[in-house]
Specification:
Blueprint (H helix, E strand, L loop, with lengths): L1 H30 L16 H25 L1 H26 L4 H32 L1 H11 L4 H13 L17 H8 L3 H16 L1 H10 L4 H43 L4 H11 L5 H17 L3 H31 L3 H15 L1 H21 L11
Helix pairs in contact: 3-4, 3-8, 3-10, 4-8, 4-11, 9-10, 10-11, 10-13, 10-15, 11-12, 12-13, 14-15
């Protein structure tokens, strides 16, 4: 009996050993990769690159779709975005008035009316001489053509050079380059009634409801940390845009005063109106100073009989605009608002191409908003680089 029990025990042990060997073999078979199968390992993998490439392609397509939507919906988005940006700039003034027991809605209305009144005053200063010159347009055009006779010989030489190099097949006529910004400028200066109504209505309502809108944006986030971060971002945007508007306004007032002084010293007619024109157009980067230069050149050539005397005011303004655009404004705005000069130039070029002159006006404020959000969401790491 004992012998039978011992044999059964050995048989069971042998069966268990055979089962264990089969299990280990099955594990080895299942764990060994088949031929041509890529095993996922820690670290870089060859299949990561196509995934990253697909992500970049999708982001590029999304960016192109956003740009196309901004361009197609320009009629709607342009007055709304302009009201949002200008309303954020003027919101601190409404908050200041509210601290003196002025209702928020009344403060918003007074601020918009005051802004519109200042704009109407500038238009009044500019329109008086403009109406006078418009009534004498044929006479002034003939006088300007006579003053420009000095350039007939250089233009004839330029035509001859053009014909010599194979151009001027249509009788040697000189083709001036097209002014691509003329039509957007006219559209900016003569917006439709619906666009103006949408702009002013949005501006008043935005300033009046800015505190409630801030509270709604902050309470959208569930936890305390995110609410605090959103509050800091909104406060930084409001402060930065307010400082930008104040700084640019003071700079442009200085440019207008200097232009008026130049016109007064050189004997130009209506120096106050020309100074107001220079200050107003200077809010539009690049395009505004060019228009002011052309206006001063035309008025100078019409007013003075000598060519050099007529060109002196516009040349002096060109020097002033060069100093203001390349040294004064970048130094002040760059130091106070930490804007990169290249980023400002690229932003001006992009938004001018997309939305015209008013896009150029909005370029720097929109860049400030983007950089402020980036600074709070993606703060710079404190890294120390080795000496080069």
């Amino acid at each position: 009996m004992a012998t039978i029990s011992k044999e059964l025990h050995q048989t069971a042990k042998a069966a268990n050993d055979r089962h264990g060997e089969k299990s280990e073999e099955a594990v080895r078979v299942t764990t060994e990769p088949a031929a041509g199968v890529i095993v996922e390992q820690h670290g870089a993998s060859p299949i990561d690159a196509p995934a990253d490439l697909r992500t970049l392609i999708l982001l590029g397509l999304l960016l192109l779709a956003i740009i196309a939507a901004l361009f197609i919906a320009k009629t709607l988005l342009l007055p709304v975005v302009s009201a949002f940006v200008l309303g954020t700039m003027l919101a601190p003034a409404a908050s200041w008035m509210q601290r003196y027991n002025v209702p928020r809605a009344l403060a918003a209305t007074l601020i918009v009316l005051g802004t519109f009144g200042a704009f109407a005053l500038i238009v009044g200063l500019i329109s008086a001489p403009l109406l006078e010159w418009t009534s004498r347009l044929p006479e002034l055009a003939a006088l300007l053509k006579a003053r420009m006779a000095f350039f007939d010989r250089p233009l004839a030489i330029l035509r001859e050079v053009t014909v010599y190099f194979g151009g001027g097949t249509d009788g040697g006529a000189l083709h001036w380059p097209k002014i691509e910004w003329f039509q957007p400028t006219v559209e900016f200066l003569s917006p439709t009634f619906a666009e103006l109504l949408l702009f002013f209505a949005t501006l008043v309502l935005f300033i009046a409801s800015w505190t409630d809108l801030r509270r709604a944006i902050i309470l959208t986030f569930p936890d305390h940390e995110r609410r605090l971060r959103s509050l800091r971002i909104l406060n930084a945007i409001e402060e930065s845009l307010g400082n930008y508007l104040l700084t640019v306004t003071l700079i442009n007032v200085g440019v207008g005063a200097a232009t008026g002084l130049i016109c007064a010293l050189t004997g130009m007619p209506n120096p106050a109106g020309l100074g107001a024109l220079a200050a107003t157009l200077n809010f539009i980067p690049i395009i505004g100073p060019i228009v002011t230069f052309v206006v001063l050149l035309a008025v100078g050539l019409i007013t003075f009989p000598e060519l050099f005397t007529g060109m002196l005011p516009c040349l002096a303004f060109a020097v002033l605009a060069f100093l203001e655009g390349h040294f004064i404004t970048p130094a002040i705005i760059g130091r106070r608002l930490a804007l990169n000069a290249l980023a400002v130039f690229v932003a001006i070029a992009f938004w001018t191409w997309l939305w015209g002159p008013i896009g150029a006006f909005l370029s720097s404020p929109l860049l400030i908003v983007v950089l402020t959000v980036k600074e709070h969401l993606l703060p710079e790491q404190d890294t120390t680089l080795p000496d080069l």
